[in-house]
């Protein structure tokens, strides 16, 4: 995605991330349709959509029907956080990244909890397909980077942003992968 503090601050709002996610996974929508996803009023969603547009995340989509509704679409099919190319991670950039990451992790945890609370009602096929894995690795930075790249390569053809729903198998559903590759701090060093 970006190492721009202003863009990150624009994203660092749960409603904006939810709206952006809605537009990226399900396609163009009105503020009213986005309001159904985020639980806000259409006027509040309109404000958040304008903020996302101001920072280049969304734009007006072609009108539908009689053209009286304003339809929005995502400009990016996904996003990622990264350190700046020059390696200078400023306090402002770190705080903005932390805010976005915190919201993303909170929402991911909530969706996982929602799944777990109703998983008994899923078919055996879906229950056995789902998995939660926790593994501790012993790897250097190059190996960790390689692991991430190999996993990304495996996931790429299945990403909802790029896969044509008409070409997916019958019964395909949205599914999530929460992957976190990070080095643990050395023993004795506490996070500040």
Name some characteristics of this structure.
192 residues, mainly alpha, Arc Repressor Mutant, subunit A, 3-stranded antiparallel beta sheet, 7 helices, 47% helix, 5% strand, globular
Plain-language structure description:
This protein is mostly helical and 192 residues long. The chain has a domain at 5-132: Winged helix-like DNA-binding domain superfamily/Winged helix DNA-binding domain (Arc Repressor Mutant, subunit A, Orthogonal Bundle). The chain contains 7 helices and 3 strands, in the order ααβααββααα. The chain has a 3-stranded antiparallel β-sheet. Helix 1 (5-11) packs parallel to helix 5 (91-118), helix 2 crosses helix 3 (31-38) and helix 2 crosses helix 4. The protein is globular and about 60 Å long.
Brief sketch in words of this structure:
The protein contains 7 helices and 3 strands; from the N terminus they run H-H-E-H-H-E-E-H-H-H. It is mainly alpha-helical and 192 residues long.
Structural class: mainly alpha
Uncertain residue segments: none
Please give the count of helices.
7
CATH class of the domain at 5-132: Mainly Alpha
Radius of gyration: 19 Å
Beta-strand content estimate? under 5%
Query: What's the average pLDDT?
Result: 88
Query: Given the C-alpha coordinates, what overall shape results?
Result: globular
**Strand element count:** 3
Largest sheet data: 3 strands, antiparallel
Question: The CATH topology of the domain at 5-132, please?
Answer: Arc Repressor Mutant, subunit A
CATH architecture of the domain at 5-132: Orthogonal Bundle
The side-by-side strand order for the widest beta sheet comes to 1-3-2
* CATH level 4 superfamily of the domain at 5-132: Winged helix-like DNA-binding domain superfamily/Winged helix DNA-binding domain
Give the CA-CA distance, first to last residue.
Answer: 26 Å
Which percent bin holds the helix content?
40-55%
Order of helices and strands: HHEHHEEHHH
């Amino acid at each position: 995605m970006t190492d721009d503090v202003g863009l990150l601050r624009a994203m660092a709002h749960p409603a904006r991330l939810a709206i952006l996610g809605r537009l990226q996974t399900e396609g163009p929508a009105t503020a009213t349709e986005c309001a159904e996803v985020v639980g806000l009023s259409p006027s509040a969603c309109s404000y958040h959509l304008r903020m996302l547009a101001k920072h280049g995340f969304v734009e007006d989509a072609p009108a539908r029907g009689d053209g009286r509704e304003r339809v929005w679409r995502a400009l990016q099919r996904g996003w990622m956080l990264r350190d700046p190319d020059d390696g200078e991670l400023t306090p402002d950039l770190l705080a903005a990244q932390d805010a976005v990451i915190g919201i993303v992790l909170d929402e991911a945890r909530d969706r996982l909890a929602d799944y777990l609370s109703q998983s008994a009602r899923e078919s055996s096929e879906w229950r056995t397909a789902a998995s939660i894995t926790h593994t501790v690795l012993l790897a250097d930075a190059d190996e960790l980077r390689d692991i991430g790249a190999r996993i990304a390569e495996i996931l790429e053809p299945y990403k909802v942003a790029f896969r044509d729903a008409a070409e997916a198998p019958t019964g395909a559903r949205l599914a999530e992968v929460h992957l976190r590759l990070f080095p643990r701090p050395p023993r004795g060093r506490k996070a500040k």
